Amino acid sequence: MSNVENVFQVVSDLILELKDVDEDGVTLDTTIESLALDSLDFVELQLVVKKKVGVALDPQAFANRAIATLRQLCEYVVEIKEADAVPA
Question: Residues in domain Carrier (predicted)?
C-alpha cells in the first residue's frame, strides 16, 4: 500500500469516522484546516497510518513541510514509505 490513492482511502475513512463531514467533502484537495482536526484527531491519524500503512508520522512534519491538503499528506506518507523501502 504505497500509492497516494490507497493512502487517501485509509485517511479519508478515518476522517469520516472522526468528523461529521459529508463523504463528498473529503477529497485529495480538501484542506486539513477545513476539517477542524484537533490534537486527538491527529494522534488517531498517526496511529491509523502507522498500523495500516506502516509509516510513523512526525507531528512536526505538518509545520516543517507545510502540509495543507490531504493530497500533500498522502504524498508525504508515500514518500516516507518509499524511502523506507530503498535498501541502504
Answer: 5-81
Top CATH class of 4-83 equals mainly alpha
Domain ranges in the chain are 4-83
Cβ neighbours of residue 75 closer than 8 Å, sequence gap 6 or more:
4
| Residue 73 to residue 4: CA distance in whole angstroms | 9
CA–CA distance, 26 with 18 (Å, rounded to integer): 12
**Tell me: the pLDDT tens digits for 21-74?**
899 989 999 998 899 888 899 899 999 999 999 999 887 876 676 788 999 999
